[in-house]
Amino acid sequence: MPVIRVALDLPLHRLFEYRAEAASTADVGLRVRVPFGRGERIGVIVAVAAQGEWPDEQLKAASEILRDLPPLPPEFFGLCEFASAYYQAPFGEVVLQALPAGVRRLDPPARRAGRQTKAKPGPLPPALTAEQAKAIDAVTVDGGYSAQLLFGVTGSGKTEVYLRLVEWVLALGAQVLLLVPEINLTPQLEARVRGRFPERTVVALHSELAEAARERHWRAAFSGEADIVLGTRLAVFTPMPRLGMIIIDEEHDASFKQQDGMRYSARDVAVVRARQAAIPILLGSATPSLESWANAQGGRYGLQTLRERANPAATLPAVNVVDTRKMVLREGVSPPLVEAIRQRLAREEQSLVFLNRRGYAPVLACPACGWVSGCKRCAANLVLHLADRRLRCHHCGFENGIPRACPTCGNQDIHPFGRGTQRVEEWLQGEFPDARILRVDRDSVKSRTQWEAVLTQIHAGEADILVGTQMLAKGHDFPKLTLVGALGADAALFAADWRAPERLFAQLMQVAGRAGRAELKGQVLIQTQYPDHPLFAALKAHDYEGFAAGQLKEREQAGFPPYAFQAVLRAEAPDMAAAIAFLTAATTLPVVTEHEQVMLYDPIPMKMARLANLERGQLLAESGSRPALQAFLPRWREAIAQLKAPSRLRWHIEVDPLDC
Ligand code: ADP
Ligand code: ZN
Ligand code: ZN
Questions:
Q1: Where are the alpha helices (DSSP H) in 407-477?
Q2: Cα(574) to centroid of ligand 2, in Å?
């Protein structure tokens, strides 16, 4: 009897074999129901062994091969194989987790047809600028694989380039995959895509879709019925039979990196997918990741630059730093910023105060005894939220009421220390009692509907001052916004995390890009105690290239990525000693000495040393050679799996960590 080899969603690096009476090689790629343990599971058939090829006496029989979907194609498995090998993730987990929940359930819910909303046609496309035309030529000239980085300031017409490329691909009869960091934050992009191609089928794929809708959209992509798939990172694995191009918007955005389960970079997987499929890929950003920038400088990616804003009337904002060393700040706001806001109010223009910290204050403390509102479960403070009178952990979700007095000494005079968006909002309201102030952060805007309502409100001019986190930094166009003030930027300048300057620069550049997008000239005021820092000099000059060159030079000298390749082994356990002991054991395994080109650092507690009652340690592995690291990791992983570990210890390997 034929034997099928099945991928199952289990943390094990192996396939599972079953007897299957009617199976043939044509069934590779179909889902199958199989007995497992005391129950059943859904798996995917990866291979069919002919009669006699596999001893089948001991094997259980598969329950049922599911034929409601066509088989997953070899390209899908090829991509999963890459991801599994590269990220040290079990193949079965990759394959199954790449599928929407609806098709990997034993009891699939009844499927309903979805409503197709008819899109309203958008405005006619503008004539392309020479730079836009050149970028489009570069992507389309070859037909085969090519990777192009599209570097252009906000408003330079990147989206227009995407739309023209989509048009080109659709005319060839192919499908497009358009990846975005967070769909909820970019309803404008979705609307523009639908408006430009009202006759085409556009589907969205992201984790906030209801399960049934996500399955329906996935099926439409897989059957070839959908022409355009607009998705977040999880969409990168969607099988698409006519895929002709991949476009990644805001390619620098950290949300392309999955931080749990299989820890992968959708951007990097997308590049591999384009190469495997021999199709072009375009990565767009105003502030490319330094990895992509280095690839473009080194010639692995082509570089297309849009230097000017597409609308000639929309000049880049003037960026100034406010030297706060000799100023008296009130709730963190400097007199020049107050004055600038006052001017905008008088002219009926909008201002945005940017502070990347939500809540009222990051901690509540007792000056008498030194008590602080710590989270019982994490190495973090509970953040004070006055809007709903709670203390809340931003890491594990734990929350509590606000104590009336210090829990340790009974002192009634306990104070919030530091400030978040709520506190700045409160102060501004006191300073400008007639202004309409709108706070925009994940506490005030929780759903897509709320987000759309907020955007409408801003566009309609129903807010004078916006106070917000980086939610407001993403690609929106606010024509009446002419002032951006940035608070609290200094924290990232000297952070231990060597990627912090890259993130700060990108954030400030993005948020600065909100100012002056229409005919009104914009101004950006960055408050700092380090006005001469080179990062601010680059921002003032709108000089991403200079900033990137400086950062890359520093990284090259220090031997950091992209000039070195990293993976991190993390262990979490009820106590740190156990986690560190386990990591230490991983450094003394025989395989370690067999791979001289890979260097292991000492195990250390993670920055967030305790999260949700688990203590966490990490161990960094690094090599100057990617192949050397890749040769080491699977052998190391197998040896680690053989280590004796306390039963409550969990570990994983993350390749190309962003946070270590
Ligand atoms: P980005 O995606 O880089 O922020 P967009 O593509 O959204 O830029 O373009 C910014 C604005 O300029 C939009 O209003 C867009 O319609 C307009 N625009 C884009 N390309 C052109 C062009 N070639 N000529 C005139 N206006 C353009
Ligand atoms: Zn006290
Ligand atoms: Zn916590």
A1: 421-431, 448-459
A2: 29
pLDDT per residue over 107-140, tens digit each? 877 777 776 677 888 889 999 999 999 999 999 9
155 lines ligand 1 (CB under 6 A): yes
CA of 286 to the centre of ligand 1 (A): 13
510 lines ligand 1 (CB under 6 A): no
- pLDDT above 90 for 342: yes
Mean pLDDT of 150-177: 95
Task: Write out 556-602 in H/E/C secondary structure.
Answer: HHHCCCCCCEEEEEEEEECCHHHHHHHHHHHHCCHHHHHCCCEEECC
pLDDT in tens, 372-383: 999 999 999 999
**Type of residue at 177:** L
160 ligand 1 Cβ < 6 A: yes
The atom of ligand 1 lying closest to the CA of 160 is: 6
Architecture of domain 3-103: 3-Layer(aba) Sandwich (3.40)
Q: What is the residue extent of each domain of the chain? A: 3-103, 130-306, 318-360+419-553, 565-655
**Other CB atoms within 10 A of residue 69 CB:** 16
Cα distances from 312 to residues 133, 244, 280, 353, 521, in angstroms, run 17, 33, 30, 26, 12
Give yes or no for a contact between 94 and 83, defined as CB atoms under 8 angstroms apart: yes
Interhelix angle 187-196/448-459, rounded to 10 degrees, is 80
Contact 8, 41 (CB under 8 A): yes
Amino acid identity, residue 456? T
513 lines ligand 1 (CB under 6 A): no
Q: State both tokens at 190.
A: 């979705």
pLDDT higher than threshold 70 for residue 299: yes
**CATH superfamily placement of domain 130-306:** P-loop containing nucleotide triphosphate hydrolases (3.40.50.300)
pLDDT given for residue 308 in this prediction: 82
Residue 259, classed as helix, strand or coil, is coil
Beta strands in 393-529 (DSSP E): 399-400, 415-417, 437-440, 465-468, 481-486, 523-528
Query: Half-sphere exposure of residue 371, counting CA atoms within 13 Å on the CB side?
Result: 17
At 448, the pLDDT band (50, 70, 90 cuts) reads confident
User: Percent of the chain scored above 70 by pLDDT?
Assistant: 99
Ligand 1 pocket check for 381: Cβ under 6 Å: no
Among 47-56, 185-194, 387-396, 479-488, whose mean pLDDT is lowest? 47-56
CATH assignment of 565-655? 3.30.70.600
> Average pLDDT over the chain, rounded to whole?
94
Rounded to the nearest whole angstrom, what is the distance from the C-alpha of residue 378 to the centroid of ligand 3? 4
Fold match between domain 3-103 and domain 130-306: no
What would the mean pLDDT of 393-414 be, rounded to a whole number? 96
Residue 310 CB less than 6 A away from ligand 1 = yes
Q: How far is the CA of 606 from the centre of ligand 3 (A)?
A: 15
Query: What does residue 196 show for φ and ψ, rounded to 5 degrees?
Result: -75, -30
The fold for domain 318-360+419-553 equals Rossmann fold (3.40.50)
Best CA proximity match to 87, nearest among 630, 645, 640: 630
pLDDT band at residue 225 under the 50/70/90 scheme: very high
- pLDDT of amino acid 143: 76
